[in-house]
Amino acid sequence: MKKLFLILILFQLSCLSEERNVKAEAEKGYLDLRNHSFTEHAYIALNGEWKFFWNTPPSKIRETDSDFYLNLPNHWNGYKMPYGSLGGFGQASFRIKIKLNEKLSETMALTVHEQDTSYAIYVNGKYLGGSGIPGPNANEFVPQVKSTLVVLPETSDLTIDLYVANYVHRKGGIWNDIVLSTYTNAESRLTKRKINETMLSSVLAFVGLFFLVMYFYNRDGKHTMGIFLFSLAVFFRTISTGERIISEFYDFPYWFLLRLEYISWFWSAPLLYHYFYTLFPEDFSKKVGNFFYTLSFILSLGLLLPPVYFTETASIYPIAFVGNGVYIFVYLYRAYKKSRMESKLLLAGMLLVLVAATNDVLHAESYIHTMYVGPTSVVVFVFLQVITFGRIVRQNITKSLEFAHEQKQLSHSFSRFVPTEFLFHLGKADIRQVDLGDQVQKRMTILFADIRSFTEFSETLTPKENFDFLNSYLQRVGPIIRHNNGFIDKFIGDAVMALFPYDTNDAVKAAVEMQEAIRIYNGHRSNCGYIPIEVGIGIHTGNLTLGILGEHKRMEGTVISDAVNLASRIEGITKLFSSRIVISADTFIEASEGLGYHYRLLDRVAIKGKTESVFVVEVLDGYEPEKAARLVSTKDDYTLALDAFRREDFEEAIEGFSKLLDTNPDDSVSRLFLERCHEARTKPKMELGS
C-alpha cells in the first residue's frame, strides 16, 4: 500500500513537471537580458517594476521622470495615486523596456497567462494579440480570460506595453506571470499545460462516472454518490480554470465561464464533507456539514448578481474553504485513531488535498505566486478512493489515462493536416465525424500568396534545399495568418491559400504583416548570402462552398467557388503591376477605414474565365515604409493621372505619370500606365485594362 501511494504522488509530480520560470526583476521599467542564456534558463518571468500609466492606452503614453511604477505580478487595487487609492475598475497600461542579446538566433515569444479580465499586448507600438477587448469604459470593453502567446519582432530592443481594462471583476491588473522565452519553448509549454489539464479532467470524469455506475448497482452505498458529485464539481472547476480547456471545444462567454468556475468552487468543499460523512457517520458532525451546505447555497444565489459583486466572495470563501478541509482532517484523524476502514489512506490523501487547497487559495489571492495544484491533488485523492474498490479498477484507470493521452496526441496530429477551424465551420467536432459530401456555404475572404519566379529560383536549389527553404518561409507566414483569425486551407507548391471566415479586415492585416515578415526574412537571407524573395498577395471576398471532396478511400477538405478562382487570378495580377498586395473591389468595400492602411485604385482588369472585368485596388502598406510613404504622398497626383488615362486623354496622362516617376522611379504601376499611354497614341483604339 505504501508503494502504491508513492506511485500516486509521483503521478501528481509528473503532471506538474515543467521547467520553472526564472524571475527577472525589472528596475524602473527596464530589464537588461543581454547576458541571459535562454538555453540554461528557458523561461523568464518579467517581474519587478513596470511603468504604470493609469487611464492611459499605449498610444497616449508620454513618459516622464515622474512616472509611476507597479511591481508585477500584482493587482492595482489599493495603489496610491496623488488623488487617492485605486479601486478595481478602470484601465491602465504597463510598460517595460527590454534589451536582448543581438545574437539571438531563435524567434522569441511572450506568454501572458490568464488574468482576471481583458488585456492587449503591444510590442514596439504594434498590437500583437490579447484577451478580450480592453477599452476606456464599460461600453467599449469586452471581458475574456485566456492565455495568449505572441511572436515578438526579431530585434534586440523591445518596448512591451500591456493595456489592461477591468469593469466587471473585483480586482484589476496583472496577477499572473508574463513570461519571455523562445517561441518553440512557449508553444511546447502551453501545449503541455493543456494536455495535462485534459488528462486530469479525463481522470475526474472517468472516476466520477465509475462511482455513479457503482451507486446504481448498490443504492445502499451512498458514499459512491458522494465521491461522484465531488469529482463532478472538481471536474467543472478544472475545465473552467487554468488554460480553460472547455474553451477549446466551444467559445463560451465570459460570464458563463466565471460563474462555472465559482459555482464548482463553492460546492466542492461541502460535497467532499458529505462524502466523508457517508463513510464515517459516527465520527463526522452532521451540523457542520449542514452549515457548509447552507453557506454554499447562499453563495450560489449570489451568482445571479453581476460579477463585481459575487467575485467579492473570493476574499471570504477561502477561509470557509480551508476551514472545511481542517474539519475533515480532524474528523478523519478521529476515525484513524479508531482504526476505521481505510482511514489511514484517506487521511494521507486528505492532507495532500488540504495543502494543495491552501496553496491554490493563496495563489488566487496573489499572496504567493506558484501554480494551481488543487485539481492534481484531487486526482491523487480520488485514486485513493478507487484503491478501496480493488486492483481491476486501478488497471482500468491506467488504461483510461493512456487512452486520453493517445487521443490528445492523435487529435493534435490530425489538426496539423486538417485545420480544426475547417472542421468547426463544417460543423464537426472532430475528424471522425467527417464524411464524403459534407459541405457548407459561407461568405469568407480568400488570400493567395505566391513567391515570384519560384520556378527559376528553385532550379538553383537541390530538392532538400527547396524543402528547407519553403518550410522556413511558411513557418514565418503561417503564424501570422492564424494570429489574424485565419487558417491555411492548403499549400500549392510555394503558394499559400488561406481563409478568413470572420472579418475582411483580418485578411488585409495578415497580408500587410506577411510582407513585413518577408522583409525581415530577406534581411536574414541577405546576411547569409542568399538572394531575397518577393511575394505577391491577392485577396477577394465572396461566397464559397467548403466541404469534403474525393472518394471513400481518399478524402480531403477543400473549398470550391468562383470567389476562390478570382482570388487566385488577383494574385496573378500582382505580377502584371509588380505590386505586393492587390485586393478586389468587394474586399476594399468591406475593409474598415479604421485599419489605417492606404490604398489606390489600379484599374478595371479582365480576369480569365470571367465575362466581366473587375476593379482591383493596391494596398500601399505592403511596400517598404519609405516607398509606401512616397506613394501615399503622391496619391492625389496618381488619381488625376489615372483619371486622364481612363478618359483617354493620353497627353495629360503621360505628363502626370512622368512626373510621378520623376518623384518615385520605382513606382511600377505608374510606369506600366505610362507605357500603355505611349502604346495608345500609336494605335487607333485600345481596350483599357486589357
Automatic annotation (TrEMBL):
Presence of the UniProt keyword Cytoplasm in the record: no
Keywords in alphabetical order, please: Membrane, TPR repeat, Transmembrane, Transmembrane helix
Instruction: Give TM regions.
Output: 199-217, 224-242, 262-280, 292-310, 316-333, 345-364, 370-393
What residue range is the signal peptide? none
Pfam families cross-referenced by the UniProt entry: 7TMR-DISM_7TM, Guanylate_cyc
Q: Which GO terms describe its biological process?
A: cAMP biosynthetic process; intracellular signal transduction
Q: Which SMART domains match?
A: CYCc
Q: Which domain of life is it from?
A: Bacteria
TPR repeat feature ranges: 634-667
Q: Which residues form the Guanylate cyclase domain?
A: 445-571
Alphabetically, the GO molecular function entries are: adenylate cyclase activity
Q: What is this protein called?
A: Adenylate/guanylate cyclase domain-containing protein
Its ancestry begins with: Bacteria, Pseudomonadati, Spirochaetota, Spirochaetia, Leptospirales
